[in-house]
Structure prediction request, 457 residues.
Amino acid sequence: MVEFKFTAQKVNEQILNGSISAETVKDAKRKIYRLAEKNQLKIKKIDKKITYLYRVRRGKEKPISGEQKAYSKKEVEDALTRMGFEVISVNKKLLDFRMAPPNAEIVTFVKISAELLEQKLPYSEILTLLINDTQNKTLKETLKEINNDLKKGADSEATFLKYQGVFGKFSAYMLGLASKSGNMAEIYKATAKFLERRQEFKKNLKSALITPAVTLFVLFLAVLFYVGYIFPETAKLFVKFKIPLPPMTAFTLKISDFLLNNGVLVTLVTILPPIIIWRFAKTKRGGFLMDKYLLKIPVLGNLIHKTVIEVYCRVFYTLYSGSAESIEPIKIAAEATGNKYFEDRIKNIAIPLMVKKGTGITEAFEATGVFTDTALARLHSGEETGTIKNTSLQLANYYESETVYKLKNFIEMIQLFIAMIIMIVMILLTLVSAETATIHPKTPGMSSNTIIERNIA
Prediction:
């Protein structure tokens, strides 16, 4: 998120100041000019909040250095002077970017915060403790800025949403919402559980899909190198002396010749598809389609589907407080799943049915086609008995237990499958290599070994 401060003039020449946040500079400026057009304002100045590096000292003490975000150099100098420091230098930070902290750091922060909140420790003290103990620089600076904003009376939800690039959109929303709620500890615990499950799911998905794919790709490159470079050095030696080649050796040599004669084509076919798929998945349409068909993959798709429903139900349980306020929790829970297809079906089918036609939750969910029969049956039961909140938690816990167990078995099956492929490839390469030992020379009285020894000499 980027922050801008703008100075504008009204028709009566009154000067106004304001600030705005957005995900990109372009979005922020668009918001400012849209606001100016709507209220008939003339924009006089726009300043972006950037990071300044400062060096100060107090009296004869040793100079200290630090960094501070501000809209101007003068703003930093004035703030430091008011604190009793002698300003030595204030300069813009040339490379002002932050690496997002690891998910484990975010999970640790949320879990510790939840535990300390349960012990009735004031939130300002919790932030101070975590700022001092956090090792990750980005998270430490973010917590400092949040603490400063909250002390100034800033809205907690708006404050955390400014740092959704650090926490993630959903986590930032939940942490900001917690400060306004009557039970911060419960929301922090639920957020920690959500983050842990998402981290575990990504780890398992990596083990089930990404790691095997990388292993197979590296194996493919190794086979290409062997067939295209190492094998021909031996096989063509027999061809040079017009020695008949066995079937497997001859076939492998033909493949080798094709690879060598079409090196550019083979390289493009090997490298381009993964790049194209990756770039396509980054687009809005591509991400939607990838998430849609990911749910339809045999075996794994079913597990991913149930995990998405589990995340949805867990978030819905945390936010839901009554039928009159069910729309916003449904929308936020859909966004939290991280599946664009699931989110689209909820927002564009379920919610319009509930708002415009007054359809019940279960009936609206059934129309989306993204909930399992088991989930619909349990939610329908909860809706009829008025216990849909607790039913959602029960469903989330049920799917968590099921998917964790089945995904573990699936990963073991994939690992066994990869091991079998590697074994088969190694056996084939060994057979091709060993077959050369059966080659006999065409010229009577001279063995193939003699020919090779003479050639080497």
Q: What stands out?
A: Confidence is low (pLDDT under 50) at residues 450-457. The chain is about 70% helix and 10% strand.
